[in-house]
């Protein structure tokens, strides 16, 4: 992968169930923030720029500029749609209970600061989770139709 990744770059991700696409919406110290677009395609999409206004499956930080996976490559660039331009609010799991595995307290992160909220409201449960994916986890989550709400 090229060491130069820019805002708006569109990555094609080959999974076991088809081709998926993601757009770089932000570049931070956590890596490139990918907006994984909803939907799998049986073959590569000739003009992936047409997909960026569609719905989002999930958000994740991913080291796109450093990936060595031949299944993930930048295939285009498009302006980031206005709803995706603001940095999203993330939820961050705190310590987990050793017996139940449940998160004992949650934090929120706005790109600048983190603050403890304890338990989450229903709306906060739908927030993306701050974290990075490996190429394998990224492909597995896409293929499985994973969404943020699946992680509690």
Task: Characterise this structure.
- This protein has 2 helices and 8 strands.
- It is globular, with a radius of gyration of 16 Å.
- The strands form 2 sheets. The protein has a 5-stranded antiparallel beta sheet.
- The mean pLDDT is 93.
- The chain starts with 8 loop residues before the first strand and ends in an 8-residue tail after the last helix.
- The protein has 2 domains: 1-86 and 132-152, no CATH class; 89-127, no CATH class.
- It is mainly β.
- It has helices at residues 122-125, 135-144, and strands spanning 9-15, 18-28, 31-37, 56-62, 72-77, 90-93, 106-109, 114-118.
- Average the pLDDT over all residues and give the rounded result: 93
Helical segment tally? 2
Q: Distance N terminus to C terminus?
A: 33 Å
Write down how many β-strands occur, each being a DSSP E stretch of 2 or more residues. Answer: 8
How would you write the strand order of the largest sheet? 4-3-2-1-5
Radius of gyration: 16 Å
What is the global morphology? globular
Low-confidence parts lasting 5 or more residues at pLDDT below 50? none
Sheet with the most strands, sense and barrel status: 5 strands, antiparallel
**How large a portion of the residues is in β-strands, by DSSP E?**
25-35%
Content-based structural category: mainly beta
Helix fraction, binned, reads under 10%
Order of helix and strand elements from N to C terminus? EEEEEEEEHH
How many structural domains are formed by the residues?
2
């Amino acid at each position: 992968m090229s060491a130069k990744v820019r805002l708006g770059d569109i990555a094609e991700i080959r999974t076991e169930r088809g081709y998926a696409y993601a757009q770089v919406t932000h570049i931070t110290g956590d890596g490139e923030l990918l907006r994984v677009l909803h939907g799998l395609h049986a073959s590569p999409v000739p003009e992936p720029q047409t997909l960026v206004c569609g719905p989002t499956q999930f958000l994740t930080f991913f080291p796109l500029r450093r990936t060595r996976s031949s299944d993930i490559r930048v295939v285009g660039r498009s302006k980031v749609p206005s709803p995706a331009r603001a940095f999203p609010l993330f939820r961050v799991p705190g310590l987990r209970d050793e017996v139940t595995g449940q998160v004992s307290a949650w934090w929120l992160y706005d790109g600048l600061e983190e603050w403890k909220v304890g338990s989450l409201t229903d709306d906060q449960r739908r927030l993306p989770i701050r974290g990075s994916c490996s190429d394998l986890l990224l492909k597995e989550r896409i293929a499985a139709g994973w969404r943020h709400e699946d992680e509690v």
